[in-house]
Structure formats: structure tokens, C-alpha cells
Amino acid sequence: MILDKIVELALEEDLSLGDITSDTIFTPENQARAVIRAKEDLVLCGMEIARQVFHAVDPQITFTPLHHDGEDIKKGDVVLELTGSTLAILKAERTALNFMQRLSGIASTSRAFAQIGQKYGVMIVDTRKTQPGLRRLDKYAVRVGGCRNHRISLADSVMIKDNHIAAAGSIAQAVAKIKSVIGHTPKIEVETTNLAEVQEALDAGADIIMLDNMTPAQITKCKELINGRAIVEVSGGVNAQNLEAYCQAKPDVISMGALTHSIIAKDLSLKIVEYIR
Question: Would you state the pLDDT for residue 111?
């Protein structure tokens, strides 16, 4: 259902007033065969959403995947073939490619980051810094690449951040309020920025302590203080250039907005390779 809504909105951007170029050149009887090819190395992602795009425009299009999400694709590889209405293929082309390019970019980055985390036994997870309206797709691509998901929505887990703490008065007061209402079952995560806040979170009974915007050296000191009494999550300022240094500090989890918020799309293109009639 969610994918249906996403596809509908995406196609509306291109097709709400028709396609003046393709509708003028071709008729519904014109048929063609096309391929989508990788123009660089990538981790493939977005095949199902691409299929839904093409079939939303014309259910009669034959969509033949030659590779699957999660596969390492080399530059020049054909990832899928399409046969059917020339009009429909051209009308769906850009929308399908936009999804595939973004999701393959996320999956490719996630694969690279996951491999670094695995070297040190550190779990790499995403954040909610996703494209508005596309969060489930973005987070799916993160999983395809080998990283894991943090919260999908605000209802998924308790995370007490700086603004909660400021408005509540203290870490202790925020945690106490949570515990008085929701009971003992959900885990409670608290964001901290220094050793004093880490100690306050420990005293309050936090299950997960996020070390926000700290250096690897600061993380090491905080880990010594925590000493296994809570899960240690690191977040803030972690990117491709410094990820390994943060992994060497051996937190349990590193959450990275860079998995989704500033991703570079991978290059794929659609080409008509045969005009059938």
C-alpha cells in the first residue's frame, strides 16, 4: 500500500498533463525492447519499486530482471530488460531510474560502511535523516547494503534527546517520567554530550547511552565509565573519512545520517535496443 502511494505521487509529477513528446511521436500500438544498464560499479537496489512503476504505467510491459537487489553489479552490466509499449516504457523511464539510482546509492554506501564495521564488531545503523516520504525505501536500501535500521518512526523506541532533556529539566527527570508511564519493558536511550551526562544517564537507569558528537578519545573514556552497564551508541559527525577511527573505539553501535541524508545516486540508464513495430 505504501509503495502504491509513493509510485502514484512520483508518476503524477511527470504524467499528470501527459507526455507531449512521446504522445506526439508514438501510438499505443508501437512496441519496443529496452534495457537498463549500470554505468558504474554499484550494489543494486530498487528492482521491485521499478517494476511497480513500469506496471503502474502499463501492466502489459514485460519486466525481466537479470539481477536482484543486493548483488554487486559491474559497470556495463544489464540489470533488467523491458518489452512492451514504447510509450509506456518512455513515460516510466525517469521515475523508475530515479528510484533505482537513489536506492542503489544508499545500498552501495551501506555495503562499504558495513564492511568497515564488521572488521571491528561494530553495528552500523541509519537514522531518520531520510528523504521525506521515502523513509521505508531508504531504510530498505540500508538493509540491502548490509547495515541495519534505527527507528523508522518516533513510536519505535524511547530516545531522550537534548531538547527533551532541556524541556524536562534534566536527564534524571526525563527518564523518571518515561519509567512512570511506560513501565519497565521498553529500553530507554539517552543522548549525552559529556562524561557528567553519561554518569547521570547511568544513575537514571538508561539502557542505551548515545555519545553525541564526541571524539574517539572521548568515547574511550565514556566506555570505561559505562563499563558494560549500558549499550554504547555513537552518533554525530561520523562519515566515510572517519568511520574506521570511530570503529576502533569499539562502541556497540554507530548511527550515521550519512547513510541516507547526502547520498550520491548511482548511474543507471535505460536504452531502447530494438524497435519491434
Answer: 98
Q: Structural domains in the chain?
A: 2-110+264-275 (3.90.1170.20), 113-259 (3.20.20.70)
Q: Quick one: pLDDT at residue 3?
A: 87
Dihedral (Cα; 138, 190, 235, 153), 10-degree rounding: 10
pTM beyond 0.85, yes or no: yes
- Residue 206 and residue 190 in contact, taking contact as beta carbons nearer than 8 Å: yes
Catalytic residue among 39, 129, 161, 250: 129
pLDDT for residue 57: 97
**pLDDT for position 260:** 97
| pLDDT at residue 275, rounded to an integer | 87
**Residues in the chain, pLDDT under 70:** none
For 18, the grid coordinates are 501527459
Q: What cell does 28 get? A: 499505443
Active site residue 129: yes
The count of C-alpha atoms lying within 13 angstroms of the C-alpha of 235, restricted to the half-sphere facing its C-beta, is 23
What is the Cα–Cα distance from 267 to 101, expressed in whole angstroms? 6
CA pair distance 245, 265, nearest whole angstrom: 26
pLDDT at 185: 83
Q: Are 200 and 172 in contact (CB under 8 A)?
A: yes
Distance CA 44, CA 268 (A): 10
Cα–Cα distance, 141 to 29 (Å, whole number): 36
Q: How many CB atoms neighbour CB 62 within 10 A?
A: 10
